[in-house]
Amino acid sequence: MNRPTYVTVGAGQAAAVAARNLRRGGFDGRIVLIGDEAHAPYQRPPLSKEFLAGTDSQDSLWILPEQWRADNDVELLTGTTVTRIDTATRRVEFAEGPALPADAVLLATGGSPRRLPVPGPRPDLVHYLRTLDDAAGLAQQLAPGRRLAVIGAGFIGLEVAATATAAGAAVTVLEAAEIPLAAVIGPEMGRRVCALHRDHGVDLRTGAGVSAIRTTADHVLIDVAGAAAPLEFDAVVIGIGILPNTAVAAASGLAVDDGIVVDAAGRTAVAGVYAAGDVARRYSERRGRHVRVEHFDNASRQGVAVAGAMLGRDTVNDDPHWFWSDQFDRNMQFLGTASAGVVVRGDADGLDFTAFFFDGPHLCGAFAVERGEDISVARELLGRTVDPAVLGDEDADLWDLAYGEDDLVAEGAGA
Ligand SMILES: Cc1cc2nc3c(=O)[nH]c(=O)nc-3n(C[C@H](O)[C@H](O)[C@H](O)COP(=O)(O)OP(=O)(O)OC[C@H]3O[C@@H](n4cnc5c(N)ncnc54)[C@H](O)[C@@H]3O)c2cc1C
């Protein structure tokens, strides 16, 4: 009997986790990971942090090392671009070469950086950061004294700013909004993160909308709305978000709405075709609507859930949204959603605190700086009615809020 073939389009975080869980779940058919990058699946978070700083090597990034793939009979095609799925026959079509028949296809194509037009002779002075190759190129720019502009003060832009500053570069961040990150972590917390950067010498300019960028023989010139003259840099990193890679799904006739539309388990409307990770807009029972999340934890958990669905099990990932960011010597973690009702526990000025967010009397989110354990407790308390005064009291034991006195609790388990 022919072994069934399961194919992933894209060989990033979600695809790799799905492959691992297909094997764990007992699938003994063919698994083929197809990625258009030159590399085996790797973790992206260190690309703006330890790898960019040079403290983590490329070898530390691999998700499914070669030996694991050999031991588990997982095939990998790198440098291979999928163009379309023939959904009637489930054949996977490529830019070049014959199609690959598949019994199930997982679309895990991630996203690509939003780009800005940059005329001039030196496009190599303009950087984006999504791939290992992008990070290796950007790392060359981080020498002491180099003048680096970062356009966009989102998490990745700010991580690059922190890593570059620590490497001795003179960093200017240009952000159009008045308060960076406000849409995600709320304005008060956004201001705290700004202060962290300014305290470390980053020239962080808010309300600084970039109207044009161009290169000269050896510089980048950036026009900022309202400024008299262009600003001059040795290089620029543009970090203004990503667009989901939906081209394959659209060419295959699948439903696309700022992401590939899937149910809570990652199934598209076409039997045997699934989507997960940054590219997937999945139904969330918790939110009562479809959501698309661009974070590592979501890609990993969706990878697990979709593997279950591919094995015919009813697995769903509807965990609250969680992510982390490392900037300078601070670890930040965010869980759930932000709101205007904020209670701060700890030393906000000293950047050692947790902000708990309330939706009426219910805890709806938390943002912790150097307090990962508070995120673990918040996970237990999310959606529950919690006394804000207790949360704000440093002497109160938060685990007592989460559990009854007689419950056994694995404290310090991390988020
Ligand atoms: C620099 C950086 C830092 C980050 N830091 C954090 C962090 O601190 N915390 C956090 O929670 N998240 C972080 N993230 C986000 C996290 O890495 C992503 O959410 C995660 O990688 C998404 O996984 P994915 O599998 O959906 O997509 P990806 O990992 O992007 O994989 C998709 C792959 O599919 C390939 N592909 C696309 N189209 C095709 C095609 N037609 N044919 C073949 N292959 C194709 C792409 O090239 C890519 O290799 C960071 C991301 C970046 C870029």
Automatic annotation (TrEMBL):
Keywords: FAD, Flavoprotein, Oxidoreductase
GO terms for MF: oxidoreductase activity, acting on NAD(P)H
Domain Reductase C-terminal stretches: 322-401
GO cellular component, as recorded: cytoplasm
Stretches assigned to the FAD/NAD(P)-binding domain: 6-303
Cofactor(s) annotated in UniProt: FAD
Lineage of source species: Bacteria, Bacillati, Actinomycetota, Actinomycetes, Mycobacteriales
Entry protein name: Reductase [Rhodococcus jostii RHA1]
